[in-house]
Amino acid sequence: MTAERNLKRPKRKPAQGRKAVTDDLCQPLSISSAPNALAERIKELNCLYGISNLFENQDVSLPWIMQRAVELIPAAWQFPENACARIRLDGQEYTTRNFKTTQWHQNTKIILNGQHVGDIDVYYYKMPPRCDANPFLEEEEHLLRAIGERLSKVLWLKRSEEALRESEERYRVLTEQVDEGVALVQDNRFCYVNPAFCKLFHVSMAEDILDRRVTNLRAGNTVEIVKSYRSVDEDKSGARVEEVIQFSRSQRVAWIQVCHSPIAFKGRPALLSTFKDITEIKEQQMAAQRMADLLDSENRVLRSSLKERYRLGDILGRSAAMQGVYELILKAAATDASVAIFGESGSGKELVAHAVHNHGARKNHRFVAVNCGAVQESLFEREFFGHRKGAFSGAHADAPGYLDMADGGTLFLDEVGDLTVGMQAKLLRAIEGGGYRALGSTETKSADLRIISASNTPLEDRVNSGHMRSDFFYRVQVIQIQLPPLRQRKQDIPLLVEHFLRRIKMPAGMDRVPGPIMDTLMEYDWPGNVRELRNVLQRFVTLGHLEFLSPKKPYNSLPLPVEMDLRSATQQLERSLISKALHRTGGNRTKAAKLLGISRRALFRKLPPS
Ligand SMILES: Nc1ncnc2c1ncn2[C@@H]1O[C@H](COP(=O)(O)OP(=O)(O)OP(=O)(O)O)[C@@H](O)[C@H]1O
Predict the structure, then answer these.
(1) Which of 34, 229, 267, 511 has the fewest CB atoms within 10 Å of its CB?
(2) What angle (nearest 5°) sits at the alpha carbon of residue 163, between those of residues 162 and 169?
């Protein structure tokens, strides 16, 4: 039973072992003594309620409460004018005005969480009338204990409040200092947002969104954030949700790492969310990824160039001459220097130019190929520098020139030797810092581009003959790549044949070029190089026979060496005759056998395995 309940006993009794205060008080309550007992009871209750009221007021401090409480105590005692009181707590003393210690003393402890943390003492200044050594009533002992319990509760509440306020303050200071946005949402409404949150979502003041629904978050493109709120449930405590949200902010893509933690706030479910702007980290990550991809693809190219050695991108060839070309391409690609490629017609100069571009740093920009042989002197500016609308009759709209189109990328000048000296001067000026103007424009522009040029003949010859300015020559020919003609790398022919036939739709029943046809292809001189080979194969597949359009001799019949034995010589002669017959019949074996006067089966026996 608590002390408070004890107080509700209907009559006052003398304390155990003490002498009776008055006889009538020691007796059951009589009608005449009832008003007096009632007055006593009211005094006790006043004291207790007074103390309870003290902590109703949340804004007061603990010392204030203790001081008021101690002042309320004497009035509840039997002889208030003789009573004084003291509360000791946390090394502090709170006393009534005329406090004095005497032998007539009563005490109770203040206990907090099972610990003795303070005391309440009541003293009488002097011996109350009609009393022995212990002048206090049993009810007063109960009352004092009840006050002690009340104050313990006050203390517990105040300490909890202080701890809460302190942690709230700590949290507030923390959240106001951190760079991460913090928001507390309950019932789908914002209860708290920190300054970083406001900054992140362009909210001018926290008050603008406090108490408002999450859907009211309007600044910028925050649809994704609102969606993210919808994806979590305030009620699912412990189910933390983390995600990275991408949205556009002032024309820029931003990334925010959101973490929603369902918590209990004021005893009800709420959502505590943090928002971290990770745009910078994300951009760095993406740049690192791009770099890793680039390195990976470069490594792959290098690996393939080292290991496989039969191709580099679209360029095929396993000959030693082509290995040298691959090395030069990779070296040239690693720099931004101008490259001049030389080689006979159809030997793959444009392919090499593409390879240099594709393996270099400008690969994600344009490769603009210009056939210089087709550029007219009078149209040079218009084609290279572009024009503005109305610059000439028929200029209905602005049009970019080659330099604009190749800005950031590569300008490939095919047949560069065909540019006139005048054109060379204009181009040189435009790319050497002088800039250029589109026709009809007053604005001087400059283009950041790499020049790769190609020519069938050495450019030195053009300089010597006065057709090329030497400054232009030095500008375009920093790195030279010489492409070997196909006749000097015949071991590449089978690879090229296989490659082109894979691209051409072969007739049914033909899956490879017959051996003798291949022999013929190997023997041929290839003045038109790889392009001619491709066209010959195209015709072979379409027309069914080999046909060389070049003015040169189609093939050479090999003279038989005298030191060869008869068997080998016969075999070689046979193969040569079969090859010629097949050539004449366009690869038709039945007709070739007929031409040779042997059976088709005999022809097949004599054909080398293909
Ligand atoms: N090494 C090669 N591997 C595969 N295909 C090749 C090779 N060389 C040339 N070709 C092919 O031959 C054709 C001609 O190549 P390209 O246009 O690059 O030659 P070019 O030297 O620039 O010719 P031109 O001097 O006539 O401009 C293209 O179809 C090209 O794909």
Answers:
(1) 267
(2) 85
**CATH fold of the domain at 3-160:** Beta-Lactamase (3.30.450)
Q: Which among 309, 318, 350, 492 is the best mutation to test ligand 1's pocket, defined by most ligand atoms within 8 Å of the CB?
A: 350
pLDDT digits (tens, 9 = 90+) for 96-143: 998 999 989 999 999 998 999 999 999 998 887 766 667 888 888 988
Closest atom of ligand 1 to 341 CA is: 21
The domains spanning 3-160 and 178-277 adopt the same CATH topology: yes
How far, in Å, CA of 459 to CA of 466, rounded? 11
Query: What angle in degrees, to the nearest 10, is found between the helix axes of 493-503 and 529-543?
Result: 50
Task: Supply the residue whose CA is at minimum distance from atom 25 of ligand 1.
Answer: 345
The token duo for 280 is 């910078």
CB distance 347 to ligand 1 below 6 Å: yes
- CATH class label, 178-277: alpha beta
Query: Is any ligand 1 atom within 6 A of the Cβ of residue 348?
Result: yes
Instruction: Give tens-digit pLDDT for 526-583.
Output: 988 999 999 899 888 887 778 776 544 444 444 444 455 666 667 767 777 777 777 7
For ligand 1, atom 18, the nearest C-alpha belongs to 348
Q: Which atom of ligand 1 is nearest to the CA of 352?
A: 18
| Ligand 1 atom with least separation from CA of 345 | 25
Q: Residue written as tokens 């003293």?
A: 123
ipTM reported for the complex, 2 dp:
0.98
User: Of the candidates 455, 239, 465, which has an alpha carbon nearest to the alpha carbon of residue 353?
Assistant: 455
Nearest to 279 by CA among 304, 256, 307: 256
Ligand 1 centre and the CA of 472: distance in Å? 26
CATH of domain 312-484: 3.40.50.300
Tens-digit pLDDT profile for residues 164-189: 778 878 877 887 888 888 999 998 88
Describe the crossing of helices 566-584 and 589-596 by its angle, rounded to 10 degrees.
120
What is this structure's pTM? 0.49
Q: Domain extents for the chain? A: 3-160, 178-277, 312-484, 490-606
